[in-house]
Structures are given as structure tokens and as C-alpha cells.
Amino acid sequence: MKLRYLVILLILLSVSSLFVGVQSISPLEIFHLTEEQKQTLWLVRIPRLVSIILAGVGMSICGLIMQQLTRNKFVSPTTAGTLDSARFGIMVSLLLFTSASPFVKMLVAFSFALLGTFIFMKILDRIKFKNTIFIPLVGLMFGNIISSITTFFAYRYDLIQNMSAWLQGNFALMIRGRYELLYISIPVLIIAYIFANRFTVAGMGEEFSTNLGLNYKRVVNIGLIIVALVTSVVVLTVGMIPFLGLIIPNIVSIYRGDNLRDNLPYTAALGAIFVLVCDILGRIIIYPYEIAIGLTVGVVGSGIFLFLLLRRRSYGL
Asked: Transmembrane segments in this chain: where (predicted)?
């Protein structure tokens, strides 16, 4: 798996994505577009493409960081309650801060996502039986508890339809003015790259890290803050995208090993490619209608997840 091939594939898929949709835009007429086609390209297609790439890169790297810090290949924002906690935070912001700006809602979602991730890490510390499969199952149960609480209050205050429609992963609504919050993830991911080697050392355990002079708790907290912030931004902007942070880092580690710093660009590129492929499929399967990205990624991702579970001994997961 060479990075340049992934980058070439990403570029080809990105260009293809710009010309897939109900509004017909051909590459041959790119320099002779009508006014309507120009507006479609600049106000809809390009913002959608940027959203896909940033969401794919962000969630994949979040999964890689969580797997490194927990030393478990099946832990991700999906299986650690982070996505569900962010969703709960958004529901709280809809209840208490009805007229708040998207940035304020993002801060509330971030606070709940961070709190939920910290609680999961504390649960992890108290579990003695740390089987590879048992840990993510605990995370899934924890996430389902939070999701049930969210659903209860959503029904109680008549927000269930609003929550379901808004938080279902969907790039169809990504137009200029709605996706810019995703830019927050760019400096956050740069920080993740700077701390990559420290995350790798922290993944070897608290005692080992401390002996090397690393402030273990601070590094872990920085990692969890990065995960919570990126997850909350993606959930608030795009919606729930399941399994992305789980399967992409596993696929990369199968071919590249476990060096987090080396794996970051591969994880970012493959994550963006995976979401682009799922998005293009969702647009052409029932054309001119569209399947939400949460559904296509969920179906494909769950299949890959089951495959990884069944073949974990072969891959050393």
C-alpha cells in the first residue's frame, strides 16, 4: 500500500464526485458552464466534496488515536460511546440553547463527547478481563445506554423527528454556509500529528510511558480532547457516520504495522477514499434519489467489521 497511489485514487474520486448528481455537469463542458451549473458546482458540489474529505479524514484519525491509547483494535468513537455522547450533547443544546449558534452547539456537544469518552476510559481502567472483543462490547453497551437516555428525552420534549432527521449522516445538505464548521478539525488534526509519537508511547501503557519520562495522563487527555472535538464537529455538521473510525485504522495497520505517526497519512487518505466511494454509490444506486451516507457506510462498514472479527487471529488483531 503506497501513499502516492492512495493520493492519486483520492484525486480521481474527488473529480468524479464533482460530476455526479441530478444537475448534469460534464467534464467536457467545465469551461463553458451555464450560470445554474456554476452555482451548483461552487455552492453545492465543492462544499460537499470538502465535507466528505474532512469528515472521512477526521473520523478515521480519531479511531486510530483511540485504538492506540486503549491498546485495542476494536475501539473507536462508534464503540466507545463518543458518538452517542456527542448526540446527547446536541439534544441538550436543542433543549436549553434553542437559538444558539452552531458554534455554541458544537461546544456543548464537545463537552458531552469528552465527558462520555472519559467515563469510558474510567470503565476501561476498572475492567480486569480486558479481552479484545469484550472491551468494545462494553463500549457499545455504554453507548446504547446514553442513546436510550437521549431518545427518552427526545420523545419527552417532542424532538425525536428533528434529532433523527438532523443527525442521520447525510452530505446532501452540505452547501455553502453549512459545512464551514468542519474547518475546525484541520488545526486539531495537525496537533494530532505533532503528538503522534507521544500517543504511540502512551499506547504502551502508563508504567512504560512514565519510565520514559512521558506525562502519560496529559498525553491521554490531549488525545481524548482531539477525538471528542473532531467527533462533535462531524456529528453536528454531517451527522452520525458509523464504523468509519473502526475499520480504516485496522485496514491500515494490517499492511503498515502500528506506528501511529507513519500511519496517519495513510489513515487519512484511506478514510477520505472510503467515504467518497460510499457517497458516490449512494448517489448512483437509486438515481436520481440518494441514499444517506450513514446508511451506506453502516452497511459496508458493518460487513468489514464482521470480517475483521472473524479473521482477527489471522491478522493478529
From this structure: 48-67, 88-121, 133-155, 181-199, 219-252, 264-285, 291-310
Is 258 part of any domain?
A: yes
C-alpha cell at 53: 474529505
- Number of CB atoms found within 10 A of residue 53's CB: 22
Domain that holds residue 221: 35-313
Domain count for the chain: 1
Q: What is the pTM of this model?
A: 0.86
The CATH number covering residue 278 comes to 1.10.3470.10
Which of 275, 99, 94, 269 is closest to 170 using CA atoms? 275
- CA distance linking residue 83 with residue 228, whole number of Å: 9
Is residue 312 pLDDT above 70, yes or no? Answer: no
Please write the tens of the pLDDT for every residue from 89-148: 888 888 887 777 778 888 888 889 889 888 888 887 777 666 667 777 888 888 889 988
pLDDT value at 7 more than 60? yes
267 neighbors 60 (Cβ within 8 angstroms):
yes
Q: How far is CA 112 from the centre of its chain?
A: 16
| Cis peptide upstream of residue 288 (ω within 30 degrees of 0) | yes
